[in-house]
Every structure is written in C-alpha cells, then in structure tokens.
Amino acid sequence: MALSALGIDPANLASQYTQIERQAKDQSLNTKYNAFNNQIKAFNTLKTSLGDFFDDLKNSQKSDSSLLSNSATASNDTALSLSASGDAVTGEYDMFVEQLAQSHQLALSFDPANPLTTDGELNIDLAGSSFSVDFASLGADANLKDLANAINGHTDNSGVKATVMRSGAETFLVVTSEESGAANTISMNFTPGADANGADVTAAIAGQQELTSAQDAIVQLGANSNLTVTSASNTLKDVIDGVTVNLTQAQELGDAPVHISVASDQETSKENIQGFVDKFNTLIGSIEDNDSLKRDVMAKGLARSLRNDFQGQFEGQTLFSVGIEFDRNGNLKIDNDKLEQAMSTDPEQLTAMLTGENGLMAKLEQRVEPFTKSYGLINDKKNSLQQSLDMVVDKQQRHEYSMEQVYNRYLSQFTQMQRTIAQLESSMGQF
Description:
This protein is an alpha+beta fold. About 45% of the residues lie in helices and about 25% in strands.
C-alpha cells in the first residue's frame, strides 16, 4: 500500500516518537522524585510521632501524672477530699479538721438615694500592701458599681475584689481578699475632700460589717491530735508526701479523726504502663513498617537505639526483672506476674526505675529530644532530602525542555516528509 501525504499526521508522529525516546528517563526521574517525596512525608510524620512520644515521656516523669498510680481514700469525705500522685508513699494517717481557712470579707452599707462623693480618697490595705482610689477620677454621677470597677481594675491592687450587693433598702460595697488566710486581712480608711457626701463613705467604713474573718486552716494530725498544722489555704500539698488534701468542712468537737489510707493502685498502674508499651511499639512500627524509613540509616539507627535503651540496670535491677521485656519479634511487652510482684514488694524502687532522675523515661527522653527540635536531626535530614528532590525536579525541567526540542525536530522532519510526498503525488497525477 502506497504512503499518502493525507495519511501522515506530523504532530501525532512527532509525539509518538518523542514519547518512545523519553520513556526510560521519565520513569527513572519519576521513581527518584516519588522516593524522595515519600521520604520527606515519612520523616514529617515521624517527627510528629516523636514529638508526641517525647511529650508523653516528659509528662510521665511529673509527680501528678506518673506511670505508677496511687489511691488515697478517706473515712469521711465530707470533711476533706484527697488525690495521690505517683510518688505518694503508702501508709495510714489520721487527720482532724478543726478549722477551715477563710478569706477576709467586709461589707460597707450605703444609702442608694444619696449620690456618691465626687472627691476624696479611699485607701485599701491588704496584708500591708495598699492602694488608693481617687473618687474624683470616677467621673460625674458615679455610683458604687463604678467604685467597685475602679478597685478591681487598679494597677496596684494586690488581691482585693469588690462587688455591689443589695438587701432591702440598703446597698453594700462588699470587699473580699482573693487569698485566704489570717495574714490576708483588709483594712480601709477614707480621706474626705470638699464634697459633703464624703461623710457617707466615712460612716460606711465606721459601720463596716465583717462577713467572714481572715483565718488559717487548722488541722490536727494523728489519732491523738498531738500535731497541729496551720495553712493559709484549704489545699494542703506538703502535709503527706505525694498526697493533696482539700479541706471542705470543719469537724465538730467529739468527731472521730478522718482516717486516710494511701495505697498503690495496681490496675491503673498496669494500664498506664501498658499504654506506654503500646505507644513505644507503635512508634517503632511506624519506622520498621514504612518503606521510606525502614532502609534509612538514621531511622533504623533510632529504632535500634531506642530498644537498646531498655538494656542495662536501673536502680540496680534490670527492666526484665520487673516484667518489662521484648518478645522474639522485638515488640515490647509486660510480664504481669513480675510487674505485680515489683509493685507489691518495692513500688518506690519501681517508680525510680521508670520515672526517676536516672530512670527509663529520662533515658528515652534524652534519646528522642535531638530528633524533635526545630533545627534537630530530622530537620537536617529533611533539608538534605529536599535538596535531592530539588535536583530531581531541576533534571525533570531540563529533560522536559530537551524533549520539547526533540519533538520540534521530529515535527519538522515529518512535516517535511508530508510536503515531499504531497509534491510527488502531485507530479505523478500529471501523467
């Protein structure tokens, strides 16, 4: 069959020949592009995972969120409530709540029918720290609410809150210390100006009513109440190590002391440790199960180092001896019998092994930290990968330009071929 000029499509032929010529290099460059791009994504995800794991490690070493949990119970939950941290020492205690701490509160009575004075200074002293409110600064037609706002917003106010209350025909300016305790007492005096209505402020201060007195909490410790503890706050954090006692109601004379029991909470502790084990295995799995990370030297080295950090002794014992070990597949697991035995026999040592200054969590935290910083190891790795990716993109762009030249050459050749055949066909048609 003879070739006809009408059967030649120069653009299509040029495209087909160009595609054949570029196919191998396109595939090579695309493979490299996808590899570097996937690695960058994988390290972004790894950095996030390491950041979360790092935060968990830090939090686990705080006394209020330790891996090992304790419980504290009270025989009378009306008088007080309890919370125990991981470093609480198991034991039995007795406590009698003699008196609750209170904030000082004063009420000044005003006749709402009388206008507020337009001058004079009200001085308020709290535990030796004082400030003054100038009535002239309140503006015309000011009322008690404006005065209360001026007190609350004063730059030198060190802990006094004012509010307006009403009872029948009386209106009260109520002033309260924000902090409780006997030392936090409030005193007020007024220096009058020219306005005769200043006499109302003087009278209100003279007739002030003490709604609550400033007082410390008083607690008797021991069954025989032979040790007295006073506190400006109703929250006692240093009386029993690791236990926070919130006093809620004073007891009556003759009431039995509140009996407090502090014990280890094995079930919660095991759940906490299992949660850590799961997070560790997930982190290692995110490296070893990811095609973009499992062959990377740095990622593989990190996984290996994290496992190695479980080796050696902590507080003179191995983690294996307390039930924290690796199975044959390299997954971290718990031997419940060993862990329960360690919790029962020496919970303080187990706590030190896991969350102490030289414990497992501190060791892992030190290992992970360089990978979590903004300019840390992973960022360096990502920057290196990005440079390689940029080089591939540059090669793709240059390759694309080169293939455009190849396409144009083929297009010119096939176009010329079409013209030559058309001329031949035209010449042959004359015979």
